[in-house]
Specification:
Largest sheet: 5 strands, parallel
Order of helices and strands: HEEEHEHEHEHHHEHEEHH
Distance between the termini: 21 Å
Strand content: 5-15%
Radius of gyration: 18 Å
Structural class: alpha/beta
């Protein structure tokens, strides 16, 4: 069994255990939560491709979001919520994609249109129109697994809620090329070990209204809009995905602390699943 598969099974087991325990002791109350943000990366059926969500599983998760009574919102609703205090609908969910992979257009967009869901795409502007792999994709590219990113022309044709990555320069370049305001930012990697207070200040000075981390958890109306939490979504079983959406797995956010990040690096190195 490949190391990535072992890693996936271990992670699913940990999430399921945390979630079921939280439900059993009544520790997953949802009263204060106003927004859950889902973070995806690749959506394709290429085997042995880390950070990938199989297309059929992505479809099943989008259907499950609807069946469980969640409401998918767009970025404008989130901006209005945190900038102007406009209430979000109950059980609001925002769908986001990181790294600008082309399969988001080839595969994910088709599924999203099927359900009428909007989504947010965050792109690494230094790699648009660049045929080189993203830094964390270099090992895969050497193995012949290529994950293409979108280009500027495709970006301009999209009716997406947002596209952003590096702090001030990316905002100016995106606004110039897309001819519309860019108001959302996504921290690179995004755990507590990867951004610091100075970065929050730079994001604020650059004029962004909201910024998204990769720290697990949902958000309340009082959450700092420049530190919005996101769930990194993987090919979970339907029950595990349900527990994640309900907030029952929020204790897993310990992995996104500075100490937890270092522990994950050691774990990935031991399994041989490090991306760099």
């Amino acid at each position: 069994m490949r190391a990535e598969r072992v890693k996936q099974l271990l992670k699913n087991g940990v999430y399921r255990t945390i979630g079921e325990t939280a439900v059993a002791i009544g520790a997953n109350g949802n009263g204060h939560r106003s927004l859950r943000v889902l973070m995806y990366h690749k959506v394709n059926d290429v085997p042995e491709n880390p950070l990938t969500m199989p297309v059929s599983v992505f479809d099943e998760q989008m259907d499950q979001v609807r069946e469980l009574g969640y409401t998918v919102v767009d970025l404008d609703a989130v901006l209005a919520h945190y900038a102007d205090g406009v209430p979000l609908p109950p059980r609001a969910v925002l769908i986001t994609f990181d790294d600008g992979y082309h399969d988001n257009l080839d595969n994910a967009a088709t599924v999203l249109r099927k359900y009428g869901y909007p989504a947010v795409l965050f792109v690494p502007i230094g790699y648009l129109d660049d045929r080189h792999p993203l830094p964390h994709e270099e090992r895969l590219a050497a193995q012949g697994i290529l994950n293409r990113t979108i280009d500027w022309e495709e970006m301009a044709e999209l009716e997406l809620d947002e596209a952003a990555r590096e702090i001030a320069l990316s905002k100016l370049r995106l606004e110039e090329r897309l001819e519309r305001p860019v108001r959302a930012f996504s921290y690179v990697k995004g755990s507590e070990a990867h951004y610091k207070p100075v970065h929050l200040s730079l994001v604020r000075q650059a004029g962004y209204d909201v910024a998204f981390t990769a720290v697990s958890g949902s958000n309340s109306p009082t959450t700092d809009p420049l530190q919005l939490r996101r769930y990194n979504i993987e090919p979970y079983s339907p029950r595990t995905f349900e527990l994640v959406l309900a907030g029952a797995c929020d204790l897993i956010s310990v992995k996104d602390t500075v100490t937890g990040t270092h522990a994950r690096r050691l774990f990935n190195a031991a399994l041989g699943t490090s991306t760099k």
